[in-house]
Amino acid sequence: MVESIKVLTPTRERFFWALDQDTVQTGRYVHQTGGPGKFAVVRLRFQTDFDGPGVVLANEVVEEDFPHDDFELDEIVDAISQGVLVGLSEASPDSEPIQALKITVMDIAVQLVDTLPQHFIEAAQRAVQQAVDEAGLVYIRPS
């Protein structure tokens, strides 16, 4: 069940890059030592969507399943959306965000001591790069 959907970018009117195929990727940002560490894991489904409005982020994780008392699930989803946007620009050959995507947050993992919302920015960026590496890119001309 999809709980929320947010449009991250409008559709571009000119040529743009898109993923060549759908993929599911897990982005991990984990660095744990004896002291405070960093821990964020996000599983994202990337689906090409040429009929949608640019890039859409959907969230399937529900608040009841989110095991953290120090911050809200919405903070994590906002951080994931920031990481996705940065990742889509960085992975694009022309530095314009990759388009025609529906990205769904399927699952997240947190560690009660070492997780902060900003760690999910990096985890999401890593998932985007993995998606581009696996699926490849195609150059699209809008009709």
UniProtKB/TrEMBL annotation:
Keywords: Elongation factor, GTP-binding, Nucleotide-binding, Protein biosynthesis. The keyword Protein biosynthesis applies. SMART domains: EFG_IV (SM00889). It comes from the Bacteria. Pfam families: EFG_IV. InterPro entries: Ribosomal_Su5_D2-typ_SF (IPR020568), Ribsml_uS5_D2-typ_fold_subgr (IPR014721), Transl_elong_EFG/EF2_IV (IPR005517). One of its GO terms (molecular function) is translation elongation factor activity. Gene3D superfamilies: 3.30.230.10. Residues 12-136 form the Translation elongation factor EFG/EF2 domain. This is Elongation factor G. It comes from Symmachiella macrocystis.
